[in-house]
Amino acid sequence: MYCTRKIYDDIIWVGADNRRLKLFEAVYNVPRGISYNSYLILDEKTALIDTADRAVTDTFIENVEHTLGGRALDYLVVQHMEPDHSATLLDVLLRHPECTVVCNKMTLDMIKAFKGTEVKALTVKEGDVLDLGKHKLTFVSAPMVHWPEVMVTFDTATGTLFSADAFGTFGALNGALFADEVDFDRDYLDEARRYYCNIVGKYGMQVEKLLGKASALDIKMICPLHGFVWRENIDYYVNKYVHWAGYKPEEQGVVIAYASVYGNTENAANVLACRLLEMGIKCVMHDVSVSEHSAIIADCFKCSHLVFASMTYNGGVFVNMENLLRDLAAHALKGRKIALIESGSWALTAGKGMREILSSLKDTEFISDDISFKSSLGAEGEELIDKLAHRIKESI
Ligand code: FEO
Questions:
Q1: I need a surface site. Which of 169, 230, 325, 372 has the fewest CB within 10 A?
Q2: Are 325 and 356 in contact (CB under 8 A)?
């Protein structure tokens, strides 16, 4: 049974949810699922905007065929070749040999590379217009948001921006299509941030370029490839992207991420959190062996100050902390104030190791000397934590 929703009478969402996926991109837990969005425009000419992941093939194809209602598919616009949006491309083309793929040159090369076959194609570049009748689609290149071939599509007739991966979120749609049908800020913003920071967080400069191009368009609707369609309060979400793309913290607050085997480093982290809260400073805590690393990274994008505490392990940084910090460095976060806490019972090397990894972050300030303690915090260590809390307060 088909399952579609109308955006306008002649623009139909034909995507699908997947709530069984364990790991998105084989690395990110998605306990609330994911949606793969695809949009079908029924004008004098018909155009499908992207396809969907292999996991939802049957639903997706049924949605497309039902919505076409026996009409030909004139165009398939391929904005992004990552397989979560292109795996079913040939499934569509085999059913619709009349269809012309509309894409840029790099995408055409990727189709050949992924699919091993040529397709009937119309190559477009930025500014080109595809006339469907009432709807006129114009194309805007958006390289590295999130792959190099990405382009987005603007329908000048309705002010609809088909934004590819930009403005997406983790989480299945669960029957809702529009962001105003849910309490997005309460229930989805954290997942949207986790999606942004981990999927395209490294490419802030390129996202800013796309935001600059988008600001010249009269956008009334945003249709991403994951998550909700935006038709109200668009500025709210665009402003979030302005913060995230510019690596600007949304909050003056502290992320305390710690690695602790027997609880002594955790105790130091807890003491610091108590001091900060007593001073009215917001903080969020993560055990790096328990929390999803993508969620910690999202909090690091959100907050102004980061404290990492690790015991020494195998003569260096504890493995889960090392993995987190390398992931953070790979996502190119910048502009944060950082403090480090190290512990160890016979060697104290974790601080040096953490500092080495984090030194690659740009515009980063280490706001205090590293705090070191042996085995357990003790009175001397408590004093150092107290000083660190005051130092953080001064720097907020
Ligand atoms: Fe949702 Fe970059 O693909």
A1: 372
A2: no
CATH number belonging to the domain at 5-245, selected among 3.60.15.10, 3.40.50.300, 3.40.630.190, 3.30.70.370: 3.60.15.10
Closest Cα to atom 3, ligand 1: which residue? 82
Query: Rounded to the nearest whole angstrom, what is the distance from the C-alpha of residue 241 to the centroid of ligand 1?
Result: 17
- Torsion angle of alpha carbons 108, 114, 116, 121, nearest 10°? -20
pLDDT of residue 295: 98
Distance 25 CA to ligand 1 centre (A): 9
Q: Do domains 5-245 and 251-391 have the same CATH topology?
A: no
CB 127 within 8 Å of CB 42: no
As for ligand 1, residues whose beta carbon falls within 6 Å of it are: 80, 82, 84-85, 146-147, 165, 225-226
Q: What is the largest CA-CA distance in the chain?
A: 77
What residues in the chain have per-residue pLDDT under 50?
none
User: Percent of the chain having pLDDT more than 90?
Assistant: 99
* DSSP three-state, residue 313: strand
pLDDT of residue 146: 86
Predicted TM-score (pTM) of the model is 0.96
- pLDDT per residue over 134-168, tens digit each? 999 999 999 999 899 999 999 999 999 999 999 99
> Ligand 1 atom closest to Cα of 199?
2
Q: Closest ligand 1 atom to the C-alpha of 225? A: 1
What is the whole-number distance in angstroms between the Cα of residue 143 and the centre of ligand 1? Answer: 13
Percent of the chain topping pLDDT 70: 100
Tokens of 188: 């989805």
- At 32, list the tokens: 């609330």
Q: How far, in Å, is the centroid of ligand 1 from the Cα of 370?
A: 39
Give the pLDDT score at 299: 98
Structural domain boundaries in the chain: 5-245, 251-391
Topology of the domain comprising 251-391: Rossmann fold (3.40.50)
pLDDT tens for residues 359-380?
999 999 999 999 999 999 999 9
- Rounded to the nearest angstrom, the distance between the alpha carbon of 69 and the centre of ligand 1 is 29
Ligand 1: centre distance to CA 24 (Å): 10
